[in-house]
Design brief:
Shape: globular
Number of helices: 15
Strand content: 5-15%
Structural class: alpha/beta
Radius of gyration: 21 Å
Bound molecules: glutamine
Helix content: 25-40%
Length: about 450
Amino acid sequence: AHLERIAAVEGEVHAFLHVNGEQALATAAGIDRRRAAGEPLGPLAGVPVAVKDVLTTRDEPTTSGSRILEGWVPPYDATAVARLRAADAVIVGKTNMDEFAMGSSTEHSAYGPTHNPWDLDRIPGGSGGGSAAAVAAFEAPLALGSDTGGSIRQPAAVTGTVGVKPTYGGVSRWGAIALASSLDQIGPVARNVRDTALVHDVIKGHDPKDSTSLDRDWPSFLDAARGGRGGAGLRGLRVGVIRELNQPGFQPGVRARFDEAIALLADAGAEIVEVSCPNIAYAVAAYYLVLPAEASSNLARFDGVRYGLRRMPEGRRPDVEGMMAATREAGFGPEVKRRIILGTYALSAGYYDQFYGKAQKVRTLIQRDFVAAFEQADVLVSPTSPTTAFRLGEKVNDPLAMYLNDVTTIPANLAGIPAISQPIGLAEEDGLPVGLQTFGPVFEDARLYAFAGALE
Ligand code: GLN
């Protein structure tokens, strides 16, 4: 049924970069046979899952939205993908994304943009617009994304789906093509909170192949999400509204739905408090130093030798340096080049303390702001994005406008804390979905599921 749905709507939505229907049907048939034989099956038995193309999939193409990886077929599964398969999920395809996950609209994909199923002239968010659009368009019930500065939560918000960025280290990054290693997290996208919890339960947990993956016993997120149903768990809960993330400049419909959600929480017995995280004012600036610096280093591996594309220089002797330069010139898009240049500049000798080092200090201040705020509140809330889905083409030639759109989501990545986005209605001015973002303290992902589950 999902393959039929994909065939029917992909021409308009373009959520996928690669669909292998035959493979998916063969996997599903194998699961059916095991079911008929009475064998035990995993918690996602037979359920189709769409996977962001940032995650490697064995024997299936993986491009990270870039020309430089066109045609590359990894010989291994990312840990999160391997865990989905072990849970008997069916990988239905690889979803579109901004090149190397740099962007907020999926327009920086080398393979053309994804369209928002709510309004095909609008962006589906980014960088994981493909995963969110696939779920919103009923092409898949579940998807995986990666969130470095909001790439799971913002697409979820603008497509009316639910997206979760786990605590940093909560899900293995092994096999996830790195953007900024200290910020990247893998997480779920689905159409309701319980479904995200179900996927998170399958992919979470320590992985010896990722040295930053946390070795701890996580509670069942599905139990947490179910436990809060019907509003139980909201009574007496202290909900902190972050003053710096509730600005007059936000779109009116976004603010209206957010205010309504706060009123609803108060009605359900939650205690609403206002909190301040003053250093959030510097979050975008710090993020756009940390991210390009780490990205420029991570992307050094795309050199024409090890993966994908190789180009020889024209009009000069084909030495190694010329080959690398020609390959990177042809293989990377403009946004990727922009960030590599920013990053290498920020890291260059003599500038480290001025830029990267300073940004890391700001990051510590933001972390401390959150720690202090969580002494006053159990969870913190804000709109997930300052606007609803903007029009395709609206910001693509204005990098700064695109970066500023991330103001609400990047603080969680800088602090390493978990955050969830869930739908809270439509903005009246454009009829497009609005998301509520909830932050929890580090390791308290279960608290977010209980809260979001109760609100759903
Ligand atoms: N929009 C952000 C950026 O361009 C988020 C990226 C991400 O989370 N992968 O960096």
